[in-house]
Amino acid sequence: FQYTQTQKILVGPLKRAHFDPTRLPGSPIYWRQRGDTSFRPLGPEVYENLRTGFAASERLELLDR
Description:
Blueprint: H1 12-19, E1 30-31, E2 40-41, H2 44-56, H3 60-64
């Protein structure tokens, strides 16, 4: 793990690695959208649609942090 100066785990790199399905091929990733009552698989096509939506809203940096 990467740690801060106060010995806390940096979660940003962990979130990036586990959110992007292209970085962990074959590993199941589940997500839910606001209002959903259950999780659903996050496949490559869904991920690209999310990226397109974030880019259109000029908020892609939030997805990549």
